[in-house]
Amino acid sequence: MNEFDLIREYFNWPSTDSNIVVGVGDDAAVVNVATSQQLVTSTDTLIEGVHFSSQVGPRDIAHKALAVNLSDIAAMGGRAKYFTLALSLPKIDEHWLGEFSSSMKQLAERFKISLVGGDTTKGPLSITINVIGTLEIGSALQRSGASPGDGVYVSNTIGSAAYAWWQLNNNQKPSKGNLEKLNRPIPRLELGRALNGIASACIDVSDGLEQDLGHILDCSNVGAIIELADLPLDEELSDYVKRTSDYSIALCGGDDYELCFSVPKRQREWLLKRLQEIDIRITQIGEITKSLGLEIKGYSNNSSSYQHFR
Ligand code: ADP
Ligand code: MG
Known about the structure:
Blueprint: H1 3-10, E1 20-22, E2 30-31, E3 37-47, H2 58-75, E4 79-89, H3 94-110, E5 114-122, E6 126-136, E7 151-155, H4 160-168, H5 176-183, H6 189-195, E8 201-205, H7 209-220, E9 223-227, H8 235-244, H9 248-252, E10 258-263, H10 268-275, E11 282-289, E12 293-297
The chain binds adenosine-5'-diphosphate and magnesium ion.
Adenosine-5'-diphosphate is lined by residues 7, 11, 24-27, 85, 87, 115, 117-120.
């Protein structure tokens, strides 16, 4: 199988998006863009041995590579539309490619995003995806918009993916749900859309809550107070915290791909109304403050807060 057969076989899915004028197969892709819209685009690379181990299977790798890219579009409040896939493969393994391609296609179909091009080379396993989305002009949720008094929120639970990772590295068995959170994160695109026009700032939690919320605070030139007791932890991590008083996984563990965002008080009701239409839990964990820095309230005296991830 040569490079062109490989592309035709595994990466040339039919698309129903009528805005694609030229897709896979030419020198570059061409898509129509409405004049009322802006493009929003982002790239992320996953490299074997750096971002995932050789133990991780092709379905998980494909899912995660696309999901983390979609998550960036979600964090901007955008609609994900197209992506390109630059794949470096050590060899042509058809079984591996079949699994990889079908998993990526599944996620792409779920979020109605089309693969419009890419590049295929021989080399160490690495996956680079460039995702392109659209936004109404001027509506992007940036990191820089938070103001004192805004509520600070996160979606779903935090620390679940990192706790699964920690368990895997400590000879413990993660729950099925948490393993899924680690290997198959769900990009919060619906939530990002719902926050459009409501949130004042937004980021996806990829490196840990403390660090990622810190980016919002730095970019917005504000601070925040959050309460440890308000952090939405899943049952397993919550038990662990009760036993150990160790909040490092919850605060500093990455890979959640949940959204962390700020919402002005006057928008709170709108937020709750919009959330009725989508199936996601959000939790207020604190408030934006004028004084700089992140204050974390609620450590117990024996807290061994950050031991693992700092
Ligand atoms: P070029 O030499 O112009 O870069 P290529 O031979 O690399 O073209 O690619 C041929 C076509 O296949 C292009 O349209 C490219 O976008 C697409 N393509 C290459 N690799 C992939 C891939 N892994 N996934 C999707 N499309 C791909
Ligand atoms: Mg090429």
